[in-house]
Automatic annotation (TrEMBL):
Residues 243-365 form the SSD domain. It comes from Hymenobacter frigidus. It is a multi-pass membrane protein. PANTHER family: MEMBRANE PROTEIN MJ1562-RELATED (PTHR33406), MEMBRANE PROTEIN YDFJ (PTHR33406:SF13). This is SSD domain-containing protein. Keywords: Cell membrane, Membrane, Transmembrane, Transmembrane helix. PROSITE patterns: SSD. The chain crosses the membrane at residues 214-233, 240-264, 270-291, 312-334, 340-366, 398-419, 601-620, 627-647, 653-674, 695-719, 725-754. The keyword Transcription regulation does not apply. InterPro entries: MMPL_dom (IPR004869), Mycobact_MmpL (IPR050545), SSD (IPR000731). It holds the Pfam family MMPL. It is found in: Cell membrane. SUPFAM superfamilies: Multidrug efflux transporter AcrB transmembrane domain.
Amino acid sequence: MSIRRYAHLTLIVLGLLTAVSGYFVAQLRFNYNFNDFYPAGDPDLDYYQGYTKRFGNDNDYLLLGVEAPAGRTVFDPAFLAQVDSLTQLARRQPNVRNVTSPTTLANTVVEGLGVFSLPYLHPETYATDPARRAADSLLIYQTPGLVGNVFSSDARALALVLQLTPDLKKPPSDSLFAALRGGLARLNIPEARVHFAGRIVAQSVFVDRLKWELVVFMSLSVLLVTGLLWLTFRTWWGVVLPLIVVLGTISWGLGIMAACGVTIDLMTALLPLMLFVVGMSDTIHIISRYVSELGYGASKKDALRVTIKESGFGSGLSALTTSLGFFTLMTSTIRPIHNFGLFTGVAVILAFILSFTLLPAMLVLLGKPALREPRRQGHSWDGVLGRLFRIVLVRRRLVFTVSGLVLVASIGLATRVHINSMLLDDLSRKDPVRMDFAFFDRQFAGVRPFELELKPAGGRDIYDLAVLRQTEQIEGYLDQTYGLRFAASPVTLVKSVRKALHGGGLAEYRLPADTLEMRSLRGKLRQFRKKPEFSALALPDGTAGRLTGRMADVGSVRADALNDQLRRYLRTSVDSTVLRTRLTGSSNLIDKNNENLTLNMIQGMAIDVAMVTLIVLVLFKSFRMTLVVLIPNLLPIIIVAGVMGLAGVNMKVSTSIIFTIAFGIAVDDTIHFISKLRLILGKEPDIFKAVRRTYLLAGKAVITTSLILVGGFSTLLFSKFDGTFYVGLLIGLTLLFGVVAELTLLPLLILYFYKRPKVVVAVEAGSSSKATQLP
């Protein structure tokens, strides 16, 4: 089979495979599932899943805060009428199970055989009876559980708490938001006075932004890379062919992801951009070498043969190391990071396959390209790189000194990096959504859920007086020391029923004085146990209860410290023969991710370093050469860690992947450099000449690929997600520092430390040969 027929067949086969992948890509869906960020396989996750089956999720709610008009309080009758209309609208929505609203709350009183509900608010009388307004206000701000939950502490805002269908997905969530916003518009309540918070808020906003940013990032990357390719090769095919290869890789990668049933989330949304910039590496190395051979006067066939032969080995190794860098992310217990590492790693290998099948096939079928200025004595790049190589040699002491000083300073600054995250850490502090959440932290109880399961011991049930007193003691600690601003538990139920039975007076909102009174109260409690507010806090059979609440989003570092103190208090101050407790909840699980971040990052880096070490040992059989390769690639990682410490950037879920990815990508050019050096050493016995020759041949591709990588990642700076922004910034800086180290530190380290092993080669001399020993 001729080479042209082989090229045609290759294009046909790859075209069919691309069409199949396109079919699956069309089925891809966007998703942001908060639960996916829980640590998979963790015992606490298994426990929480069982807990939700008993009591429901702690994040299936929507907070709707409404500020009173300027200069007025929440007791303004017109404002209360608007809030009541909004309450009725919310209650009619299909996925709303219950609405807690200030305008419908009532003080329950039991008299004889009758149960009466006395509203806390009487807005119809406020205009004519100011005393009634003052009395209502006084009662509300003295009643536990109202202020911070539905009334703000400064009486300037009210909140509706909407209990929703469990695990509500985006389409019904969007319908709910549309209905509520429509009602707000009809009631003439300005958006500036309305605030939303809850899981479905983040879900809706994140998915919409993911779609928008994916389009923006890809568009900017295509424009940027097209410009850089044109400036580099100055030929239409030097631009079009790499784009075809990389876009084909993206189609294949997304197709495989879709075929496996994986959706696009906050992490996998980076996959197309990652493939676009990383997949360019092999194509640029191939075309750079191909153009160089043509420029030196080689025929098209010979140029392509030499290119494939010399670039294939290095590209294969670099694809291996880069994909391994992504595969190490699979050690993460966080599912989105695991999926991102898996499918990006697979796609990097696919990029290598397409680069050495599709690209050569297109070059074969393409007529011999006309170069701008073909030269037999080399290209202008040779002159630029030659001068740069001489400057590096002359200034070698300066290079080593600056590198050492930067390393020491970076290590010192890196110690300032802390592991800390908040519920909406991926949104900037000025983002409207995050500002809404901050509004509830300031004006109300907060947005961070708290969950503590209560299990009576010693044959008791949740309504045993000793158990209730222990629970009340815990509530006191949580209020005074822990920082919980709103709490509800079986104690709340018992106190509320007791108050209702004693005329509804605030003084009666307390636990029974003795076991006898508690026994008489049990009969009344049994009548209410199937009501939603009761079943949400205690199981019908009384075998377990729930202490739930909300607090400000204090961050994972502060939360970990508070939880450690709480566990110590529960161990030392709560009688385990009466009551056993266990801290759980979605916030607790998210915080647990921090315990794994450092370990996962160290594991990923260790695997990367081990693989690179193994590759260098196989190639050069030299431990010195291993250090020579690792130093210029680890140095940029340490510098970026120092930049994070200097800028105050915390380690969190989204930024924890930076070091592993950056090392896997940065080492790519080093692998190309040393693999080319190995080939040249087979022909050139002088190490200095071999390094210089490698520098001239690999330098152009190293600079070009690095610029494209940095440029591609720089598009992430336009992201509205802080995590994505820092991924782009810090990986871009790592690659920028990496190319500087590649062109300055690496050649010097090779010349200083690489000791070529002594070998015996046969040198042809006419019809005879003689053995020559090379140093």
